[in-house]
Amino acid sequence: MLLGAYFAKLDEKSRLAVPKKVRSELGNNLVASRWYEGCILLVDKNSWSQLVSRLTGGELATLSARDTDRFLLAGSFELELDKQSRFIVPLSLRNYAKIKREVIFAGLGNRVEIWDKNAWEEHEKEIMDQAGAQIEKLYRERREDGK
Questions:
Q1: Domain 2-116 top-level CATH class
Q2: How far is residue 42's CA from residue 121's CA, in Å, rounded to a whole number?
Q3: What is the pLDDT of residue 143?
């Protein structure tokens, strides 16, 4: 399970070294994609198609499902790590996530989010400030859904 936050720096050739814990969980064949809240998603290739199906339900009849596919699939890249466990962060993903140099790899169970360090610190503060209200909201929604 992927837990914790790991600091890394983009090198002069736009490469990022994947932290050892992340690498041991995900392997060397990865997919990076645009993700929500302005970060980059990093998952192993096997989990990628399951995740996309889960988000869209495999349904292409609705505009929101097609747009989700467009957002995720058109903004994704298959990656292979080099011998030093690095990958080149594609320019479109660097621009999307506003990554300059310092990044955070945030482990979230079965996936990793890659954030610009400053953006992560701002977002983490918002999350921490709203944590109590968010868990109460989730609890109410699940009760309303009968779960």
A1: alpha beta
A2: 19
A3: 86
